[in-house]
Fold:
Amino acid sequence: MTERRWWADGLSAALLAALCWLFYWRALTPNPLDQVSFVEGDFSGQFVAFAHYQAQRLGAGETPLWNPYNLGGHPFLADTQSAVFYPPRLVSIALLNLTGGSTPQRMYAALQAEAAAHALIGSLLMYAFCRALIETAYSIPAALIGAITFAYGGFLTGYPPLQLAILEAAVWLPLILLGILRATQDAERLDWAWLALSGVGLGLTLLAGHPQTALYAIYLSLAYLAWRCGGRATGKLRKFAIGALILGALGGGIAAVQLLHGWEYLSATTRGTLGFEAKGNGFPVNDLLQIILPGVFSLYSPLYFGITALMLVIYSAARLRPAEVFWFGVLFVALGLSLGKGAILYDIFYQFAPGFSLFRQQERAAYLVAAAAAILAAQGASDILHDTAQSPLARRYVAIFLGIAAGALSFSIAAFAEWLVTPSESLANFQRVSFSLLIALLAALLLINLATYRNRYWLQWRAAALIGLIVFELFSFGRTSPNFEAIPISARLREPPALAVLRADAADQPFFRVAGVRENFGTLYNLPDIDGISPLRFAHVERALKLPNRERVWQLFGVRYVLSPDRELPAPSRILYEEDNPYNPVRLHALESPLPLARVMHRAWIEPDEAQAAGYLSDPAYDAAHTVMLAAPPPVALSGAESAAARLLALEPERWLIEAESPSAALLRLALVYDPNWRASVDGVPAPILRADIAFSAVPIPSGKSVVELTYQPSSYALGALITLGTLLALTLGGLFSLAHSLRRRARRPPA
Structure:
């Protein structure tokens, strides 16, 4: 690359960085008067809460394998959205811990900055891919158009910043594609170094923590590799097979530290209980109009990538060459998948494409629409600039641009008529449609000027005007995003006063559970809550949580405190604190007779059918305080005695230590969520862990005093960590070998 091109690419990168700041500046500014912040919801209740816990554990030098603060406890690392080993998240946490540690507000700000950084990463990587893909003299402005369209279109600026794992998994796709493009440029062989870069991109996508987005990236990457290898000749099929194997091995190897344990957990979660009807939801067909009428039919418009970019895509389609065929195929397949069960295409993928039957919300295929549209818009921009430099374009293209503008005008007339009939209800839609009309007219005028006025001297300025129009359109629409509220971060996630009262009351009895802490804020405030919003949860825990007898649920989980708007609970309690306001009343109840987290049991009820067991447990007459429900007879003979004691000595995230005393052999029943990765020992001797009361754990103990220790030791995590370390070592050694080989070749080259 010439020095001039390096400067041009450097200026383009600087422009993309400036645009990222322009889009997110109010979320990044320290001035509370100007500051906006992401709305609370999934962003605060899931990602801020999990990242804050992760920062606390990593800051203490511990790996967060288990989270005791939600759902009665669940495998934190295995919940893929926790993104425990995602490198950018580790950087964010390291910076926080080096500058004073994590608080809910500081983590809120850090993750907002992380979202903005990923918008920049996505734009830079898409720029690099389009720059490499497009070989005309106008590849730089075209690549800028592709980068801006991808990073600031309706998908990446819609709900993904709030569901941060989607955004962070999505932005690495251009890196994977760039590696494949460069690796396959030689028709005879694959360039392993570039393919390794694709593997790194895939590994980052997998570690980011959204498996559905990663699945889309994997299928698109394999399809692009097959397209680049081309044909069905034996040699080319072999080239594709080797490339796919290397890509999968590197990507999977890098992410194995999280993937293996996550897959083990996924097989035991509620996802396996959902069928086609529950998983097939997608866009209604009328939502396809989001492409030209954003914000009219739904809160978000993930199919919107800009009217100006749409005209460029259509121009590319009108000139359709083999290079664009693949991306138009991706565009239309993704649109079909985004309709879910509303189109037959999803039925085919559901039955025959591995992985598609695991996920809900098929409208997320808009991710592939966004990527393909950005690439086609870049190609269309390159075509129109290059063609205009050669000769004026045919009049049919002028007709296409005018036709789109006329379509926008007709929608505006319809919206105006609706506004005249119901002005109070349709004003917002009229304003949005009018904005679309303005953009369509400006884009048509600019593109018609490009298509008909041949003047190479002014072409670069018209290219700049085209980029400016796309920025104006996407950023103006982005300012209306429902993601932001004019609330400073300092006002977010303040700990409710009720929790201070709870902590004070529990000071002398530190081992307890609480019910009713909203979202995943048990994790945020380090309170062992039995509720939570994590979409992945053990199926047996979900069954226990949904028992119709709420008092029994609290007994099984060992709940002592309940946060509720109600004055009366289905169990005797006393109110410790209340905020009696008409909008959000809060009352903190202390249950009068809570069951402890550890109990010695001498009676068992054997019921192998889980549904039947749930029915017995829900019966108020069932004696849950003295009876444990098992699926099979226990390995010890139970006497039915009553005098026994258990005392919790330590309760840590991955370790329980209990001292138990019993006159005869018994079962130590623990309000510890059953997971086969827990290991038990009694007086230092390994002991089995039985599943008790549908979702919990029990350990056989002998007569007399004994010390029982349980530790969380998932072997899948250990194996995954070894695979990841081995993959990273292989990549490092391969990189060093490649560098040494390159230096030797350069040293042998004769001087010019």
